[in-house]
Specification:
de novo design (two linked rop proteins); Membrane protein; rod-shaped; mainly alpha; membrane; 6 helices
Length: 178
Amino acid sequence: MSYDWIIDVLFWIAVVFLVGVYVSWRATRLDRLHVRVETARAALDAALVRRAAVALELAASRLLDPATSLLLATAAHQARTADAESREFAESDLSRALRAVADQPEFAATVAAGDEGKAVLEELAGAAAKVVYARRFYNDAVAAARVARGKLLIRVLPLAGKAPLPDFFEIDDDPPRL
């Protein structure tokens, strides 16, 4: 009695098992990348909201002239209330408004003269730097997820499910020179 067929069956069971483990590992990796994108997006949103709040605080602080305060408050309000499609443009407008305010010749001397002005400047510089880092982390996570989703196995077997392909968040985030 020959048992060669048992060895063949065991071999194919092992092959199917190993392929299943590999596919499961790839699906889990892709899921972790999507979670990383979502977490990075939440951190980016928090950093953007914080920057807009500090900009509104600066606009309301009476350290700026009324026209500059109005310009800054308008840009910050639009950034906070923008919908998903216009968010990148509104955040870029806020970055440009912050740089325009900081580039005024009397800005540094006027704001840095008092303790309140120094505190607002430090908070604004920190919030602007966090936006730069958060956007960089988010875009790195999106790039990793897009590379993973471009793999042949992920495309052939729909391992991404119905998850949308993440998009980059591109804004003008050069911080103001404070």
